Amino acid sequence: MLQLDSVAKQETILRRLKASGYKLTPQRREIIRVLSEAYEPQNAQQVHERVAERFPGMGMDTVYRNLRLLAALGVVSQINLLSKRGDLFKLGGDHHHHFVCLGCDKIVCLDGCPLDNDSFSGADENGFTIVSHSFQIYGYCAECSKSHAATPAAPALTLELAPTPVPRSEPGKKAGSI
Q1: Are 15 and 79 part of one and the same domain?
Q2: Using an 8 Å Cβ cutoff, are 78 and 94 in contact?
Q3: Would you give per-residue pLDDT tens digits along the chain (178 residues)?
Q4: Residue 103: which residues within 8 A CB-CB, separation 6 or more?
Q5: What is the CATH classification number for the domain harbouring 110?
Q6: According to DSSP H, which parts of the chain are helical?
Q7: Does a structural domain hold residue 21?
Q8: What's the number of CA atoms in the CB half-sphere (13 Å) around residue 170?
Q9: What residues contact residue 26 under an 8 Å CB cut-off, 6+ apart?
């Protein structure tokens, strides 16, 4: 059962979407409902799985597009994990930042904003109008620190070489002859 504040949040977001000229499609409403019922941030795959229960034909691209739109409107917080899980999304674009564990993707909210007005001093002279910012600190939580070095190693690079093409034989010639 939805809590009253969850319903109120959904209605506030829907009004903001409508005021910004966006349609209030059933799929968009469902994405907002799923996020409002989630106790912790969700990745796009998790949102898609829940939405697909009511809209089985809805594709991942629709989920991604709507999550990005909601983040751009400031009604959803987007947290970049730098992992295969992808970004996480949380309803409520309240201004806060995160510590993100590179080992287990644990997220801890930072108190306050480490950026002050001086951090943005070059924006005006460079013609930038700031509408938002995001700030994450990446490292290892206490548990993961036990199994990782203090400084993360550079990711290993893997080179895959394409197989050497075998020359195709022309009619009347044996394969491999020139």
Answers
A1: yes
A2: no
A3: 344 477 888 888 999 999 999 999 999 999 999 999 988 889 999 999 999 999 999 999 999 999 999 988 888 888 777 777 778 888 875 667 778 888 888 878 777 777 766 667 777 788 887 766 677 788 888 888 888 655 555 444 444 444 434 444 444 544 444 4
A4: 140, 141, 143, 144, 147, 148
A5: 3.30.1490.190
A6: 4-19, 26-37, 44-51, 60-72, 122-125, 142-145
A7: yes
A8: 3
A9: 55
Give the C-alpha separation, 67 to 62, whole Å: 9
Q: Which amino acid is at 94?
A: D
What tokens does 17 get? 């979407």
For residue 118, give Cα distances in angstroms to 42, 123, 133.
33, 10, 14
Note whether 71 and 102 are same-domain residues. no
Q: CB-based burial of residue 117 (10 Å sphere; 0-12 exposed, 13-18 middle, 19+ buried)? A: exposed
137 three-state secondary structure: strand
Residue 131 lies in a domain: yes
Looking at the structure, do residues 7 and 89 belong to the same domain, yes or no?
yes
From the list 11, 45, 47, 7, the residue with the least C-alpha distance to 27 is 47
Retrieve residue 127's tokens. Answer: 């013609």
